[in-house]
Specification:
It is a single chain. 36% of the residues lie in helices and 26% in strands. The two termini are 24 Å apart. A six-stranded mixed β-sheet has the order 6-7-8-3-9-10, sandwiched between helices. It has a four-stranded antiparallel β-sheet with strand order 2-1-4-5, covered by helices on one side. The protein has seven helices and ten strands. A hairpin with a 2-residue loop joins strand 4 and strand 5. The mean pLDDT is 92. The longest helix is centred in the last third of the chain and has 17 residues. The chain is of the alpha/beta class. Bound molecules: adenosine-5'-diphosphate and magnesium ion. Adenosine-5'-diphosphate (ADP) binds next to strand 2 and helix 1. The site of adenosine-5'-diphosphate has 11 residues, from strand 2 and helix 1.
Amino acid sequence: MKIKCSSIFKTYHISKTRDVINDLSFELDTGNSLALYGPSGVGKSTLLNILSGLDNPDRGEIIYNDICFTDLSDTEKISFRLEHISHVFQTPNLLQDFNVIENIMLPMRYKGISKKKSRDIAMGCLEEVGCQEHATSSVTTLSGGEAQRVGIARAMAKSSKIIFADEPTGNLDNENSKVVIDNLINICKTKSITLIIVTHDENIISKTSNSMKMLDGKIT
Ligand code: ADP
Ligand code: MG
């Protein structure tokens, strides 16, 4: 799915007013990957939240293919997100009461996909991230890198058109980061999933098709 956003503004008012996003525009084509980087507190997570509809911009327009996302109602945004968008966070937040494959099946079950089909898709995704042997393991037995790869499998399993990853390797060592990122970028490329990764890691920036530095609410 193609992303186009034009003149996004977002100001937070707490003790003082802060223009976190200040006239930001960019485009990203279907299946391309974008590394978003810049100092802490510059508004990277805010931008991802706005793009995925978890937060609203004060002004500006976000268009996915030919759908004007910012014009959708809250309910329509929720269905759009459920259908097309997945997230990978710094920690995968796997549910401990469910085993590995059940964690991956859950978002599909919410979408109404049958148990059998969800299980088959989940197994395929686990194979793609190289964690198939952990399918029936408790999530508490996974290493940090494995848990994050399971998180990626869960994001892929929904067959979303867009993945937003907010510092997905923030908790991992270099070796595991490399495996996780290579996995994520390769899978998105093969499946034409559009990917935005927030990162501090220069190695990631060199692997994505596009990169964008944020400073003072703008792209530099
Ligand atoms: P980054 O992800 O680049 O580290 P964030 O997007 O998390 O930055 O935050 C950007 C700025 O906006 C920070 O100064 C932060 O304190 C502020 N901020 C983020 N979310 C909120 C919020 N919900 N309410 C008020 N201020 C916020
Ligand atoms: Mg952040």
